[in-house]
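Possible race condition, two jobs.
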Amino acid sequence: MRSMRPDRWACRGAAAILVLLTSGVLRGADRPQWGEPGGRNQVSAEVGLPDRFDPETGLNVRWVVPLGTETWSTPVVSQGRILIGTNNGAPKDPRVKGDRGILVCLREDDGGFCWQLVVPKVTEDIYKDWPRVGMVSAATVEGDRVYMVSNRNEVMCLDLKGQADGNDGPYRDEGRHMVPAGTEPLEIAAQDADILWLYDIPAELGIWAHDSAHCSVLVHKDLLYVNTSSGLNGEHNRVRVPDKPSLIVLDKHTGRLVAQENEGIGPRIFHSTWSSPALGTVEDEPVVFFCGGDGVCYGFDPPRPSDAPVDLHCRWRFDCDPEAPKENVHQYIRNRQVSPSNIKSMPVFHEGRVYITAGGDIWWGKKEANLLCVDASGQGDVTRRGRLWSYAMGEHCCTTPSVWEGLVFVGDCGRMVHCVDAATGRAYWTHETDGEIWASTLVADGKVYVATRRGGVWVFAADREKRLLHHVRLDSPIAGTPVAANGVLYVATMRKLYAFQSGASAPPAQ
């Protein structure tokens, strides 16, 4: 590995000293949403993170907290609280029984339980809310407000304090919302979430999620940008509601519908709408980048104030697979040679470029995946002129790339980690891990953290030369992305949330 430049060390040291002098303790920063604010880049400025850890011995383990039995969400950290979605497989409240979606709020210092959002599962059609997967969407925190999409595809604004400061409104029916229809409501207790407002996407727009709601809400000024998770029916032969939007915009104060996309994405959704929007500044103007279930990345102008919902203006459009079929796309379901592409990851905006992973659907499409780098400037269809480079990966890819100091790191479903030149798309190195990679990479403190579906955590040096620093197997598969906040690395497996910190020494695992 090449040595780090002295000026880079100096900058890191100065930043650490500044934090120490101003706060009295060496403390980093919260991570209140998925990825960097707006741009979605999963890169952190944290320093002093451990490059090795082992729950079996307690090495660099601060604490470990049990979750449910399936955890697909990524944790977020804000104001001394950690929020993560899971299921009710290991109930924290004896009143709550059976399969439920759970958003749990924990204390950052010791992992102690604060409160939880409980949402009944949709039971009439498993393809609207897959059994036992719990709450999949990652929360977004701004101030004392938590923006969340539930397993029932409801957009919610929650109080970060829960019911600790009383039941604030205007929403007051939490007790009834926690139980299935026709069931006696629960009495609201201190350990329950406080819903401030709720926008029910199925009730208001007729859009049910496919399998699960997958959305990390993007907040920009007074607006929320939300992926509707629109997708196929249970027979996988048509989109449930092809005339409905894939992206909507809500007022963050009230939940009122402000705008929606009207680009005709619906009929071309090959499987589902998995991607959450990102924000970039292009030619001094904000642009919301959104990857549809049709394999196209769109750039939208933020809507202007209006009394009634308006259509978003699409200023920029890039087709990630222009040679793929575009009509009657569902005839290609189960075709592993020829099919449309879709996008399961988020677009990453970084220094005037958009980085995207796209390719055949992991369950129903062709065995192909590419990492794309696109010029974010210009307007209209930029498919031909906008592509800067394309890099072929393994069979499929579900993960969002991380862009750091001229390098792009990404994992794929073929077990491979890739380090690619951000300028040219040329691979510097690859490494085969122990399992499929569904969690996105995290770059922090000069290291790349990678987690696999076999429960492995791999730590590499974030460099052009491959150097494996550590590998450890945790208790169960990992789908959520590792997160760094305030000097601590958080890794959620299906069953547990681990807090790793340099110098910590929890009791060895039993």
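Job #2 (started ~2 s after job #1):
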Amino acid sequence: MKQLVIFTTGGTIDKVYFDAASEFQVGHPVIGDLLKRMNVEFEVFVHQLMRVDSLDMTDVDRKAIQEAVENSDAEHILITHGTDGMVETATWLEDIRDKKIILTGALQPAAFAENDAVFNIGCAVGAIQAISAGVYIAMNGQIFRADEVVKNRVENKFESIPL
């Protein structure tokens, strides 16, 4: 892989805590700086599409993501996304051919000392170099085909759809 295009959309992975407001807000994307610190040996292009919690994501937002992926010349595309709407957004991308697309996110903000963001990003970056064209979700140490995964909200994890 010579280059990786990353589209960021917001979600927990980029959330920061503001003491004055006593709430989380989606901050600047963390993935570009993270990959730079990890000394990746390929070009990384980060494009912030939006700063939206996936619970607030609309079809207009999903259409913008779809168009950005379709219009990209890149073969390898990683999308950071909120976990609650990740599977739905992935379905918007299923008809895109000849691209390797992985969505990933986090259940805890990357800014937290204990988080799953770095692990999920690393898993996604490694997997995107080995998968065939299609749409995938990288969460909880697993790579799922986008049409074969659900988020189990009770256990707060992603899992394969039972056959």
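The chain is about 25% helix and 30% strand.
Logs attached separately.
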